[in-house]
Design goal:
Layout: E1 3-12, E2 17-28, H1 32-44, H2 53-64, H3 80-85, H4 87-94, H5 97-113, H6 120-144, H7 146-149, H8 167-189, H9 191-211, H10 218-238, H11 243-265, H12 268-274, H13 279-282, H14 284-307, H15 313-336, H16 339-362, H17 369-385, E3 393-398, E4 401-406
Antiparallel strand pairs: 1-2, 3-4
Main location: mitochondrion
Membrane topology: Multi-pass membrane protein
Subcellular location: Mitochondrion membrane
């Protein structure tokens, strides 16, 4: 009588475990009972699998090849039908839709706060052009930072990192949106707004993006980039820049520091792994001090806006509690320097900016350029009344020439 040693096969489709176990069964050959027992053993370990028999067989055949080559390419082919079915979603991801929405909101606030008549067509074109230019800048930024985004948990799911799109798609999207956006700003708004948009595009993609891996000065430069969109809105409404535009730009410039420094605090491992030179990584103490310092700058700027005829005095009073609480959270972040305080500061910054813009709009001092001119004329007349009548000058027209003669009104 001969015996057959049968090894128990272990194969798990769900967990990907396969192999031969150490258990074995000795079966006698030549009797029907043993053959039936062998069939029972071979089928009892596979009946739970939902895969068809052909799939199981193919899987087992693939397992036999131990050295299966792995696809380690940085870029992979993207199916054409996949791009067509998700083109809208991919474009939103390339443009960083939430960040672009914030940029457009600040541009709209700059237009609404400018002391000039409101024109809905120009307002809409300014918002659309700003959004398209911002989308182009974000697409180019992702194109340059693919190797570094792949190392960060926050950015590892971007479309270029995952291979959902190829680099040529990102460049093509940026070329179309930048050309369209700058054309809309130049022909639909004015050349100054288009020039500010073009300068901001170059500054973000060609200076700020590479500087992120070179120096912590990238944060200050990035704040300048964030302060330009409201200036674009102001220039789109008035055709120029004045003290009011600078006040709004200063608020946006200073707001970037507590917002980004609080955000980067909990992302220090990611930034360090990717090689980004952020204040939170290279100088944590400076990161907290700068965040606290610029909340104070925001408070001072809001108070000064009333004296610069951008808003009325009520804005200084109404914005004070909002700014003081912002300073308090920045102080807590500076003092505790933990993830909880940084998270609270970051979340409140998302509420602080829209609330501050709304208060500025409600307490806007001049709603048209004519009101501004009338105010200047009144101020000039008040200044003129301060001089004695004997020292006044009367301008008399004499043909094409205008001369000034000193008159003594007391002698008349």
């Amino acid at each position: 009588m001969s015996y057959l040693k049968v090894l128990h096969c272990r194969f798990c489709v769900k967990h990907g475990i396969y192999g031969l176990s150490s258990k074995s069964v000795l079966l006698k050959i030549g009797q029907g009972q043993e053959i039936q027992q062998l069939a029972k053993i071979s089928t009892s370990n596979n009946w739970k699998s939902k895969l068809p028999i052909t799939t199981q067989t193919q899987s087992l055949q693939n397992v036999k090849g131990k050295n299966i080559p792995k696809d380690t390419r940085a870029w992979k082919e993207t199916p054409t039908h996949d791009i067509k079915n998700n083109v809208g979603n991919y474009c939103m991801m390339l443009s960083k839709f939430r960040l672009t929405s914030l940029v457009v909101m600040t541009s709209m606030a700059g237009y609404a706060l400018a002391p000039a008549p409101f024109n809905f067509t120009t307002f809409a074109l300014c918002a659309v052009g700003t959004g398209l230019v911002s989308s182009a800048a974000n697409s180019i930024n992702q194109y340059h930072e693919v190797p570094f985004d792949a190392q960060m948990s926050r950015t590892k799911n971007r479309v270029l990192v995952k291979g959902l799109l190829e680099p040529v798609h990102a460049i093509s999207f940026a070329a179309v949106t930048s050309a369209t956006g700058l054309g809309v700003l130049y022909f639909g708004v004015n050349p100054l707004t288009a020039a500010l948009g073009a300068g901001n595009l170059v500054l973000y993609t060609s200076v700020y993006t590479p500087m992120k891996r070179m120096s912590i000065l990238n944060t200050w430069l990035g704040s300048v980039v964030g302060a330009i969109p409201p200036l674009m809105g102001w220039a789109g409404c008035t055709g120029g820049l004045d003290a009011g535009a600078l006040v709004l730009g200063m608020v946006l410039y200073s707001w970037q520091f507590p917002h980004f420094n609080a955000l980067s605090w909990n992302l220090r491992p990611d930034y360090s792994r990717a090689g980004y030179r952020m204040m939170a990584v290279t100088d944590p103490g400076l990161c907290r001090r700068v965040a606290l310092r610029h909340t104070g700058v925001i408070t001072a700027t809001c108070i000064a806006s009333s004296y610069l005829d951008v808003t009325n005095m009520w804005f200084a009073l109404e914005s004070l509690p909002l700014n003081l609480y912002f300073m308090y959270l920045a102080w807590q972040f500076y003092k505790k320097s933990d993830s909880g305080s940084s998270r609270k500061l970051f979340r409140f910054s998302l509420i602080h900016l829209p609330a501050l813009m709304l208060l500025m709009l409600v307490n806007k001092k001049y709603w048209s350029s004519s009101e501004t001119q009338e105010h200047k004329d009144v101020m000039k007349s008040q200044d003129l009344n301060k001089f004695p009548e004997s020292k006044r000058l009367t301008v008399l027209p004499r043909g094409p020439v205008v001369t000034a003669q000193e008159t003594d009104l007391s002698k008349n």
